[in-house]
RNA polymerase sigma factor (Gimesia aquarii), 182 residues
Amino acid sequence: MSTFNTSSDQDARRVFTELLTTERLRIFGYIRTLVPHNSDAEDVYQHVCLTLWNKFSEFDQERDFFSWACGIAFFTVCNFRRSIQRDRHFFSQELIETMSAERMRHLSNHNTRLELLQDCFSGLSSADQELLLQATFEKQSIKEFAEKAGKTVQTLYNRLSTLRRELAQCILRKLKSEGQSQ
């Protein structure tokens, strides 16, 4: 393991840490799209992080870190697949390449989608916002929430389904109005 004695080494470490922290969920999401099992995806992610760190001195900071990281992740996934080739439950190389390109396209506007989700969410009634927050972030079951709210479980599931669909449609409308792809 290298030690960081010089300020340029410390700067590189800081920049790398900031970039990886910012993009870690998107990178893992990209890998998870290409690797069917979560535990395998976590192993691949660890290899990708090590490779990113080892090759960081080669990274052109004028380029997009996420795209660079996904390029490395793609080849790491390919190497992983070769090492377990005998398992018939894995995707073909052609499918992996297609899924990779599609996932990159989808993730390229991830931050925009999050901003639009927040905007669409703020347009909901406070009761609907509370329902979505309870269902998404609280550690109580829908059944417990339904009992507290005096509603049936099915009623809440139906409302949640409707709200999620409305949010998705709102995001798509806003993306189209901004001329972005879905």
